[in-house]
Design brief:
Helices cover 32% and strands 27% of the residues. The chain has 419 residues and is α/β, with parallel strands linked by helices. The chain has a domain at 263-414. A five-stranded parallel beta sheet has the order 7-6-5-8-9, with helices on one face. Strands 10, 11, 14, 15 and 16 form a five-stranded antiparallel beta sheet that branches. A hairpin with a 5-residue loop joins β12 (316-317) and β13. α2 (42-61) runs antiparallel to α3 and α2 crosses α7. The longest helix has 21 residues, at 68-88. The radius of gyration is 23 Å and the shape is globular. It binds S-adenosylmethionine (SAM). S-adenosylmethionine is lined by residues 102, 104-105, 107-108, 113, 116, 149-152, 156-157, 182-184, 187, 211-213, 227-228, 236-237, 241.
C-alpha cells in the first residue's frame, strides 16, 4: 500500500514502506537468481519461454485427463520463464513494488501480480472459455478485436493462448487483434518485453499504460476479457472497470466472464474452512465435502454481473460522494437453531463462456470470504458503526460500494425484531 514516510515533516518517498523492505530484498534476489539461471543463449531462452507457454495451454485445452501435478508443473515452468522476461524489463524497485488504492480499487504491484500466472484453474476456466468464444465469433467475423484491461505484467489469460494459436497456426494475427492495458508502468514495461520475447507483436494492436475506468478504445470490442477481482468480490475494481468498458462492446460483443454470480451463505467456520479440507491435497470445487456442503445455509445470489446487468446498473451517489449500486435482496431463513454461531461468507461462481468457468475454491478469486462484521441472531457487546446486525426472517438489501475499497454493504429493509 502506498504510504508516505515523513522525515522532519517532509515526505521522503512516496513508496517506501518498512513492511515491504523484506519483499524488496526478496524480489531483487528472485530477479538476480532467475537471470543467473539463464546461462543459456538468448535464442535458447526464447525457445524455452515460448515452449512453456504453448505447453501449459495445450494441457488446458486437451480433452484427455491431465493430472493436477502435471498442470502445476507446466504452470511453474511458464512462471519461471515469464519472470526472466520481467527481470530483463529492468523495473526499478519503486516501479516493481508500487501498490496503492485508486478511487476504484486496489492497484496491485507488478511484484505481487506476477504470481497470477500460476493460478492454474483460474487460467484454465478463462482460457477454455476464451477459446470457445473465439471459435464461435470467428465463424461470422473475419477479424476479432479483444480488449484485456488490468491484464497485469504477464497478461496470463491471453498471451499463453496466443502463443498456442501461433504455434498451431489455429488463428492468425489477421484474425485476432488484442489490446492490453494496465495502469501500472511496471506491468506495461514487462508486457512489452514479454510480447517481444514471445514474438507475438503481430497479434497485439495496443499496449497502453492507462486506467481502465478512463480508457476509450478507438475500435468496437468483440470480446472484453476481464479479471480484476479478489475473493468475496472485494478490493479490486472489477465492477467499475466492467461498468465503464461494457459501453464499448459491439452490439453482438461478449464479456468474458459472461456471468459472475456472487452468493452469500451462513457457515460454521470450522466445518467450512478447516474440516472440509483436512483430507484434501489441494482445494478445488471437485473436492468439496458433502458433509460441509450440507451444513451450509445458502442465502442465494446477492449480485449477478453480466453484460445486461452492467448496462442496466443504476448508480446512486451518497453524501460524501461515495457511489453505490443496488444489488439483490435476500430473506434470512427462519428456524436455523445454530444461526447465532454461524458466520456470513461470500463467494463467486464465474462462468467465463459456454459452461467453462471458475467454481468456488478453484482459485483465490472464488474462495469464499468470511465477513465477521455481519451478525445474525446475535448482538455484539459493543456495536460499532461497521457492524451489521439482523435477525432470522429479516429482509436484507445488498448494495455494492464503488470506491477505493469496493465491497458489499448490507442494509436491513424490514425486520421482525429491531437490532
Ligand atoms: C492481480 S493483477 C493481474 C490480473 C490479471 N487480470 C490476471 O489475469 O492475472 C491486477 C492488475 O490489474 C491492474 N489494474 C487494477 N485496476 C486497474 C485499473 N483501474 N486500470 C488499469 N489496470 C488496473 C493492476 O495494475 C495490476 O497490474
Amino acid at each position: 500500500m502506498e504510504r508516505l514516510k515523513e522525515t522532519n515533516g517532509k515526505p521522503v518517498s512516496a513508496y517506501a514502506d518498512p513492511s515491504i523492505d523484506s519483499l524488496l530484498k526478496h524480489s531483487i534476489r528472485t530477479q538476480l537468481e532467475s537471470l543467473l539461471q539463464s546461462k543459456i543463449s538468448v535464442e535458447q531462452r526464447i525457445e524455452l519461454l515460448q515452449k512453456s507457454f504453448v505447453d501449459a495451454i495445450s494441457l488446458i485445452l486437451s480433452d484427455t485427463k491431465v493430472t493436477h501435478h502435471q498442470l502445476v508443473k507446466a504452470f511453474e515452468t511458464m512462471y519461471d520463464q515469464a519472470v526472466q522476461s520481467m527481470a530483463l524489463a529492468e523495473l526499478s524497485q519503486e516501479v516493481l513494488t508500487r501498490q496503492y488504492i485508486s478511487p476504484t480499487g486496489l492497484i496491485m504491484s507488478p511484484y505481487n501480480c506476477k504470481h497470477t500466472i500460476k493460478d492454474v484453474y483460474r487460467i484454465k476456466g478463462y482460457a477454455r472459455g476464451i477459446d470457445k468464444a473465439i471459435q464461435s465469433k470467428i465463424k461470422h467475423k473475419a477479424k476479432i478485436n479483444i480488449l484485456y484491461p488490468a491484464c497485469g505484467p504477464f497478461a496470463p489469460l491471453i498471451l499463453p493462448l496466443l502463443s498456442y494459436y501461433k504455434d498451431t497456426k489455429k488463428y492468425s494475427a489477421q484474425q485476432l487483434q488484442v489490446m492490453l492495458i494496465d495502469v501500472q508502468p511496471g506491468a506495461v514495461m514487462t508486457l512489452r518485453q514479454l510480447v517481444k520475447d514471445l514474438q507475438l507483436d503481430e497479434y497485439i494492436s495496443l499496449i497502453e499504460e492507462v486506467d481502465a475506468t478512463q480508457f476509450v478504445p478507438d475500435v468496437g470490442i468483440d470480446l472484453l476479457v476481464l479479471e480484476a477481482m479478489q475473493h468475496g468480490f472485494t478490493k479490486e475494481g472489477q465492477l467499475s472497470i466492467a461498468k465503464h468498458l461494457v459501453q464499448f462492446l459491439n452490439i453482438d460483443g461478449w464479456m468474458i466472464p459472461q456471468n459472475v454470480s456472487v452468493r452469500g451463505m451462513m457457515v460454521i467456520g470450522e466445518t467450512e474452512f478447516n474440516q472440509q479440507w483436512k483430507a484434501a491435497d489441494y482445494s478445488h470445487s471437485t473436492k468439496l465435502s458433502d458433509v460441509a456442503q450440507q451444513d451450509r445455509i445458502e442465502l442465494g445470489e446477492i449480485m449477478k454481473i453480466n453484460k445486461s446487468t452492467l448496462l442496466g446498473l443504476e448508480e446512486v451517489e451518497l453524501e460524501g460522494g461515495v457511489k453505490v449500486v443496488p444489488a439483490n435482496q435476500v430473506v434470512l431463513p427462519v428456524g436455523v437453531t445454530d444461526m447465532s454461531k454461524r458466520i456470513f461468507a461470500v463467494y463467486a461462481q464465474i462462468e467465463t463462456f459456454a459452461q467453462e468457468g471458475v467454481e468456488q475454491y478453484d482459485s483465490g478469486i472464488t474462495h469464499p470470504r468470511p465477513d465477521t462484521s455481519i451478525y445474525i441472531d446475535l448482538k455484539p457487546k459493543d456495536i460499532e458503526h461497521t457492524h451489521f446486525v439482523a435477525s432470522s426472517g429479516d429482509t436484507v438489501q445488498f448494495f455494492y460500494q464503488l470506491s477505493g475499497l469496493p465491497g458489499f454493504v448490507p442494509v436491513k429493509i424490514q425486520g421482525q425484531t429491531d437490532a
